[in-house]
UniProtKB/TrEMBL annotation:
Gene Ontology MF term list: ferredoxin hydrogenase activity; iron ion binding; iron-sulfur cluster binding
Gene3D superfamilies hit by this protein: 3.30.70.20, 3.40.50.1780, Fe-only Hydrogenase (Larger Subunit), Chain L, domain 3 (3.40.950.10), Iron hydrogenase, small subunit (4.10.260.20)
Origin superkingdom: Bacteria
InterPro entries per record: 4Fe4S_Fe-S-bd (IPR017896), 4Fe4S_Fe_S_CS (IPR017900), Cytosolic_Fe-S_CAF (IPR050340), Fe_hydrogenase (IPR009016), Fe_hydrogenase_lsu_C (IPR004108), Fe_hydrogenase_ssu (IPR003149), Fe_hydrogenase_ssu_sf (IPR036991), Fe_hydrogenase_subset (IPR013352)
Pfam family of the protein (one): Fe_hyd_SSU
Signal peptide start and end residues: none
Name assigned to this protein: Hydrogenase
Lipid biosynthesis listed as a keyword: no
Native source organism of the sequence: Extibacter muris
Keywords noted in UniProt: Iron, Iron-sulfur, Metal-binding
């Protein structure tokens, strides 16, 4: 099934929930949904709620009503991503293990853009998989073992704000070969359905989100800290990573002003901040929109400032403005984006646990499964690699490429 989502009919929206529905109808299958941070502040708009309404409990109930065997929170894996990504950053900064700055890796559209246009910066991109990239293998190993589930029967479904995630889960590297003995079809994540697809599916079944009760996530991978919640906002990954990097460097939780890192918040296309953690200075940048990423890369190539950590998200406002989110107004307005952003920051501010490293479920998964960040098993299941796709551009594309971009790998390394 597909439908047009583009006014010039060049992009089709692919509906995959029919296949998920078939999996639910198969008594042999165990269908596990995992919901991304932004879905809960967008989904309500499809059912008449004001922009930014926080409908987490009703969304979980809706998934249960469709026949989910388990409903888990990808915010858990957002915390896991921070544990791995912040640990990698601290190693790069303190041990010079890899070049700086470190770029974030959780936006598949940004990663593919870099692979295609700037392959020389791939060593700068964190090897940490995205939250859904970590959620998948953790479900098929740890969660399956803890619940005595047959891994081969698990069907992992990510509910995301993002159409690019449909491509991401099909990358060859997103395959948990270590538990599948190399079986090619043992994918980390089996399906991605978007916020809009979920709403369409519910309407087809005659269900209205407004009639749903509140339901909690299932345990083990259903708890998250505020640092996972804000992943959906531009700047959220940076802010969450800064909180845990502080802890990793100093052994203490950060002071109050780190909990609301104002300079990395907002809607400017490129935002910067400098923080000092212990005696380690960190120069941070947050970018949303690939045109802003291009400008930033050019500025760096032209001999601009050095940075330590750079977050790039493709969609305006971050994932809250993703291509799979409701479009009650076309084009989407900044008012709608800001309402969703506020809802996630408000939720974070209201939470008792706001650090990834303090999430009890995260502590447990390391104690019982991953041992510690960047351990051998963590590297195997939670990290990935990237491919040079510059050949996709052909000869013409290579000529258009800014010549100075080729020197980035050398010039960006701090000495
Ligand atoms: Fe997907 Fe957009 Fe989020 Fe990138 S910023 S992960 S493209 S929703």
């Amino acid at each position: 099934q597909c439908a047009n989502v583009c006014p010039v009919d060049s992009i089709k929206e692919v509906y995959e929930y029919g296949e998920v529905r078939q999996a639910i109808e198969d008594p042999e299958k165990i269908v596990i949904f995992s919901t991304s941070p932004s879905v809960r502040v967008g989904h309500g708009e499809e059912f008449g709620y004001p922009a930014g309404s926080f409908v987490e409990g009703k969304m979980v109930a809706a998934l249960r009503s469709l026949g989910a065997d388990y409903v888990l929170d990808t915010n858990f894996a957002a915390n896991l991503t921070i544990m791995e990504e912040a640990s990698e950053l601290v190693e790069r900064v303190t041990k010079k293990t890899k070049p700086l700055p470190q770029f974030t890796s959780c936006c598949p559209a940004w990663v593919k853009f870099a692979e295609t246009f700037y392959p020389e910066i791939l060593p700068h991109i964190s090897s940490a998989k995205s939250p859904i990239g970590m959620q998948g293998p953790t479900i098929k190993t740890y969660f399956a073992q803890k619940n005595n589930l047959d891994t081969s029967k698990i069907v992992n479904v990510a509910v995301t704000p993002c159409t690019a995630k449909k491509f991401e889960i099909q990358r060859g590297e997103m395959n948990i070969s270590s538990v599948s003995n190399g079986a090619e079809d043992m994918r980390d994540m089996d399906y991605v359905i978007t916020t809009r697809e979920l709403a369409r599916w519910l309407r087809e079944e005659g269900r209205d989100l407004r009639d749903m009760p509140e339901s909690p996530y299932d345990s083990l991978m259903g708890a998250a800290s505020g640092a996972g919640v804000i992943f959906g906002n531009t700047g959220g990954v940076m802010e969450a990573a800064a909180r845990t990097a502080y802890y990793l460097i100093t052994g203490e939780n950060p002071p109050e002003d780190y909990l609301n890192l104002a300079p990395v918040r907002g809607m400017d296309g490129i935002r910067e901040a400098e923080v000092v953690i212990g005696d380690v200075p960190l120069r941070l940048a947050v970018i949303h929109g690939l045109e802003h990423a291009r400008q930033f890369i050019k500025r760096m190539a032209d001999g601009g400032k050095n940075y330590d950590f750079v977050e790039v998200m493709t969609c305006p406002g971050g994932c809250i403005g993703g291509g799979g989110q409701p479009k009650t107004e076309v084009p989407m307005t900044d008012d709608i984006r800001q309402a969703r952003i506020r809802a996630l920051y408000d939720k974070d501010a209201s939470m008792v646990v706001r650090y990834s490293h303090k999430n009890p479920d995260i502590k447990r998964v390391y104690e019982e499964h991953y041992i510690k960040p960047l351990s051998e098993v963590a590297e195997e299941l939670l990290h990935t690699r990237y491919n040079d796709r510059s050949k996709d551009l052909g000869a013409a594309g290579m000529q258009e490429k800014p010549a100075d971009a080729f020197s980035l790998g050398k010039r960006w390394r701090r000495t």
